[in-house]
């Protein structure tokens, strides 16, 4: 049971916006958001997971998908944004340092 919980937590965190922006390279985050065709120009490092999730919400809909049938994806992103908000708060000292040292993650 314990191993299953750890595996489930690991799989859940790999899609987390905070993990995408803090633990992975900047280029990986940029490539992911470009593939989603987001309208965001940059993601600040402070609360980057929440900003990353909202950039996903501010993206073009896929081919053949209308706004009315696209209702489940935003719910998942909003749940992830809440979890990212908690992780971003815990990582705030590190992300403030990275924002000062490296600046925002520029997408365009």
Automatic annotation (TrEMBL):
Provide the alphabetized UniProt keywords. Answer: Lipoprotein
Q: Which organism is it from?
A: Pseudomonas ekonensis
Q: What protein does this entry describe?
A: YceK/YidQ family lipoprotein
Q: Which InterPro entries match?
A: DUF1375
Query: One Pfam match, by short name?
Result: DUF1375
